[in-house]
Amino acid sequence: LKHIISHIKMASCSNKRKVGLVMCGSFNPLTCNHLRVMEMARDKLHHLGYLVVEGVLSPVHDDYYQHKKSLISARHRLPMMEYTLRDQALKWVTMSSWEPSQQTWIPTREVLDHFRRYYRKKYGRNIETKLVCGLDMLEKMVDPQLWKASDVKHILTN
User: Which residues of 24-59 are buried (b: 16+ CB within 10 A; e: fewer)?
Assistant: First the structure.
């Protein structure tokens, strides 16, 4: 009976559209609310018929300090994030050190494009990548001095 139930669950999941989630931010520090937003996004997408296969937290590069003076160095933020993620129940959420390991700060659009390629390599071409963000990022997206309109359009339509 367990084998039959498992087979039915796998068959129903294979019909769902796969999606990988990405949350960009300073995570200065990573909080329970960051994780709760990821969980809420996963639940909503599941309700809409998606299968969330993975969620990635991408901490911003240290050069973002010019916009956020309270930013703690990635060499401190990354271990704090690893510690927090180790002890939480959302095992499908991981942290990536890719963004802070780049030569300089890069726009969110480029970070999402990186993870789009990552997810396609790992899960195949039939996967979507979605940005998960808080109200603070949404509010900044309408500021033309912080965000290019073409980047916002790309993020919202891809």
Answer: bbbbbebeeebbebbbebbeebeeeebbbbbbbbbb
Q: Which pairing describes strands 127-132 and 17-25: parallel, antiparallel, or unpaired?
A: parallel
Distance in angstroms (rounded) separating the CA atoms of residues 153 and 146: 14
* Alpha-carbon distances, residue 91 vs 67, 70, 88 (angstroms): 31, 29, 7
The answer to whether the CB of 106 falls within 8 A of the CB of 62 is: no
Mean per-residue pLDDT pooled into runs of 10, the chain (158 residues): 44 77 96 95 97 98 88 96 89 97 95 98 97 91 91 91
0.70 exceeded by pTM: yes
